[in-house]
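ok trying again, last paste got cut off:
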Amino acid sequence: MDLSGIISISGKPGLFKVVAQAKNNIIVESLVDGKRSPAYSTDRISALEDISIYTYEEDKPLAEVYQAIYEKEKGGTVLSHKESLNKLTKYLLEILPNYDEDRVYSSDIKKLFQWYNILHKADALKVEEKEEEKTTAKKDTKKDSEEKETKKAPAKKTAAKKKPTDKKPAPKKKPAAKKSAPKTSGKQSANTKQTATKKK
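nice, full thing came through this time. structure:
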């Protein structure tokens, strides 16, 4: 819930929106009747975005409390500040079960509900998305843009595979020719036989 620019001025009923700034004052516009008037530095001014509710743990910013009310009421109005204090307290316990009952006065509780309804009527409740929704929205946007880029991008040409060049088989080596034994003439062989016979 964004409450920036919304203020309360002590002694003046309702809430105001800052519309202009001068040297010695600011010009504010009432969220109740739309009338503009100056507010001075001597006035006790409280910015709603700086207001927190006391709890037994950490103080809860008013913006977060209003966010919870908005979600509970599904964007509708809340109980009137004129309801019984018992009803208002019971409702606040549903929204903020650990609020400090000793430090949060009944006047604060009534003002809490009154301001919410004033903001609602003036259409000044600026609801913020939850972090999870923001993250999901970002992811979806990113996904859509990636899909668009994929569609736009031209199809990449796949490089043609080079066919292996047919290697010519190495020429086979011819076996070395066997040296034939020298042929002996018929006469020589006959002489040899004769010699062998003589020896016997």
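cool. The radius of gyration is 50 Å. The CA atoms of residues 63 and 71 lie 12 Å apart.
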